């Protein structure tokens, strides 16, 4: 069932955290600073899906999982872009009330904001070309373009770390996972 209809099942599952955050926000369950919690939670989900996207190839390679996990890269990548877009929208709309003067100052002067926005900019062409038509038209250039997932995830990871300003119990496991996934990328492939 999952092999045949995985998109119909997994895309809605990926939207559950966003729906849960909206529900919590509407019912006053996000704490004393709901905008901050909402915005950070969306960013965290974006980073989780980026890490999931990077984890699929090493899982298949090192864990010897026989199902084709790589088919889920598009799903996790698009969900990462969805959550990153919502994260930025919450930052622009809820946090700053669409005050473009303040936003411009933030985007041009605050380093961790610059890194986060840069990560989102790198994800835009990936989201736009995550379809079969783009793969056919771009051929080898499509693979080259989609390697942008690595710098985008690194920028998102630094943005994530700098938003906490210190290593802590929340940031450490995610940054360790990112380091491990990047290390897996540079390890030589096993010859069978």
CA-atom Rg in angstroms:
18 Å
The total count of strands amounts to 0
Low-confidence stretches: none
Helix content: over 70%
What is the 3D shape? globular
Mean pLDDT: 89
Order of helices and strands: HHHHHHHHH
Subcellular location: Cell membrane; Membrane
Subunit structure: Heterodimer of a catalytic subunit (MsrP) and a heme-binding subunit (MsrQ).
Cofactor: FMN; heme b
Family: Belongs to the MsrQ family.
How is the topology of this model organized?
Blueprint: H1 2-26, H2 34-63, H3 73-95, H4 100-109, H5 111-128, H6 132-138, H7 140-145, H8 149-164, H9 171-186
Task: Identify the notable features of this structure and list them briefly.
192 residues, mainly alpha, 9 helices, 0% strand
Short description:
By secondary structure, the protein is an all-alpha fold. It has helices at 2-26, 34-63, 73-95, 100-109, 111-128, 132-138, 140-145, 149-164, 171-186.
């Amino acid at each position: 069932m999952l092999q045949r209809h995985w998109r119909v099942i997994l895309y809605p599952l990926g939207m559950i955290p966003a729906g849960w955050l909206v529900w919590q926000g509407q019912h006053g369950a996000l704490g004393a600073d709901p905008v901050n919690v909402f915005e950070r939670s969306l960013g965290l989900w974006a980073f989780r899906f980026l890490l999931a996207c990077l984890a699929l190839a090493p899982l298949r390679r090192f864990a010897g999982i026989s199902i084709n996990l790589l088919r889920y890269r598009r799903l996790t990548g698009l969900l990462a872009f969805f959550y990153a877009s919502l994260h930025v929208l919450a930052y622009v709309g809820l946090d700053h009330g669409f005050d473009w003067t303040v936003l411009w100052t933030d985007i041009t002067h605050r380093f961790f904001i610059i890194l986060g926005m840069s990560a989102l900019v790198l994800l835009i062409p990936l989201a736009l070309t995550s379809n079969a038509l783009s793969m056919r038209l771009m051929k080898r250039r499509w693979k080259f373009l989609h390697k942008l997932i690595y710098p985008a995830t690194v920028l998102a990871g630094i943005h994530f770390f700098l938003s906490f300003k210190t290593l802590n119990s929340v940031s450490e496991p995610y940054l360790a996972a990112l380091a491990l996934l990047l290390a897996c990328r540079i390890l030589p492939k096993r010859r069978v």
